[in-house]
Amino acid sequence: MEKKIISIINQKGGVGKTTTVINLAAGLSMKGKKILVIDLDPQGNATTGLGLSNTTNSDKTIYNVLNGNKKILEVIQPTKFANLNLITSNVDLSGLEVETAGDSRRAFKLKDELTSILNDSRASYDYILIDCPPSLSLLTIMALVASDALVVPLQTEFFALEGLTQLMKTIERIKSNLNPLLEIRGILLTMFDKRNKLSNQVELEARNYFKDKVYSTAVPRNVRLSEAPSHGIPVLLYDNKCPGSKAYFKFTDEFLEQDKQVESAA
Ligand SMILES: Nc1ncnc2c1ncn2[C@@H]1O[C@H](COP(=O)(O)OP(=O)(O)O)[C@@H](O)[C@H]1O
Ligand SMILES: [Mg+2]
Q1: Residue 264 lies in a domain
Q2: CATH code, domain carrying 225
Q3: Is the CB of 106 within 6 Å of ligand 1?
Q4: What is the distance in A from the centroid of ligand 2 to the CA of 14?
Q5: How far is the CA of 198 from the centre of ligand 2 (A)?
Q6: Using CA positions, which residue lies closest to atom 3 of ligand 1?
Q7: How far is the CA of 44 from the centre of ligand 2 (A)?
Q8: Are 88 and 52 in contact (CB under 8 A)?
Q9: How many structural domains does the chain have?
Q10: Mean pLDDT over residues 227-234, rounded?
Q11: DSSP 3-state assignment of 220?
């Protein structure tokens, strides 16, 4: 089975989800893969980080799909980067949970819409990457129901692993109720500082516990990664030689290698 719908997920904020979505999308698209990014966070950081607007005067947003106003193919927008399309988000999305309270099938809305994309020859994506909000609310449940697999960024700091317990419980619950084939594709260590004892300790614990689910790439703390979003471009294009870029190029290769292994095993 193809595993092409991937959510980048962690209910903690500021752990590198959006940075990972933007730069994995950039890395994959630079390798010729056709990518759709879905910004599922009302903050719209993936939207602006890829050069589009997260103001509320556009109706081409994921909000308008999830509330039933638009079909998903109507809201896909090009970015200025080849092979990379985007569905934007803005603060309107924060109202969805209350507005759809009466709809008992709402958890399946994103999955149903994505199924229609996968069956449409006008939208032949190699990967659909979903940038999740920092919560375990309806939006995250929608992403978990719609996804084939998950990438979990893990900030190498104190309490990082404690935070994962709750996420793992939620994933198990979704697997037993709504999406039995959901799997964790990998855990990506972020904001790693090799001179910091704590970073090394968190890495050790994560690798001990999650074994080969932890990518061998660890993304270092690098100020270039925090500068790039204000220019609306992935760091891979902003400064392709900085340590952050090197890490995300390596991560892209590791990500693609996972599918090669699956193909050759099949
Ligand atoms: N490896 C890194 N080094 C330095 N800054 C980073 C790194 N990864 C992310 N950042 C910055 O940290 C902040 C939070 O990252 P972000 O990707 O937005 O996290 P999330 O989406 O999980 O909330 C952003 O300002 C981002 O630019
Ligand atoms: Mg984010």
Answers
A1: no
A2: 3.40.50.300
A3: no
A4: 7
A5: 24
A6: 221
A7: 8
A8: yes
A9: 1
A10: 97
A11: strand
**Is 129 within a domain?**
yes
Q: What would the DSSP string read from start to end of 39-50?
A: E--TT-HHHHHT
- Give tens-digit pLDDT for 15-29: 999 999 999 999 999
Task: Identify whether 265 is part of a domain.
Answer: no
Host domain of residue 131: 5-258
> Is residue 127 one of the residues assigned to a domain?
yes
- Amino acid letter for position 31: K
CA distance 102 to 14: 32
Q: How would residue 266 be classed by pLDDT, with cut points 50, 70 and 90? A: low
Ligand with an atom nearest the CA of residue 44 = 2
From the CA of 234, the nearest ligand is 1
Strands across the sheet containing 214-220 = 77-78, 84-87, 35-39, 127-131, 5-8, 149-155, 183-192, 214-220
CA 208 to CA 80: how far, in whole Å?
A: 41
Cα(44)–Cα(88) distance, integer angstroms:
7
Least confident of 60-74, 110-124, 211-225: 110-124
Q: Report d(CA 12, CA 142) in Å as an integer.
A: 17
